[in-house]
Amino acid sequence: MSVHSDQSLRDLNLIVTSASSERTLWRKISHLFALWRQRTRTRRFLAKVNMRSLAEAGISPAAAAYESGKPFWRSMGSLR
Chain-centre distance of CA 31, in angstroms? Predict the structure, then answer.
């Protein structure tokens, strides 16, 4: 009987480990999508900001144009 219960515990451990891995994977994917959405919003905002506001924030128009032209999956660079 102990062999059977040991096997059952191993099977249960595999199931729990699988579920934990799956939750972690979904959490990472969710975080990645949130990051991509934030980058998209930031880049759209940079594309709309006027030159005076950019100058007040210390951001060059060239840096804003370059950053706003990047795809969402590329990380944000320095704006100064």
Answer: 5
Tens digit of pLDDT for each residue in 9-43?
555 555 555 667 888 999 999 999 999 999 999 99
Measuring CA to CA, how many Å separate 23 from each of 4, 33, 35?
29, 15, 18
Position 31 scores a pLDDT of: 96
DSSP character string of 4-70:
HHHHHHHHHHHHHHHHHHHHHHHHHHHHHHHHHHHHHHHHHHHHHS-HHHHHHHT--HHHHHHHHTS
pTM of the model: 0.69
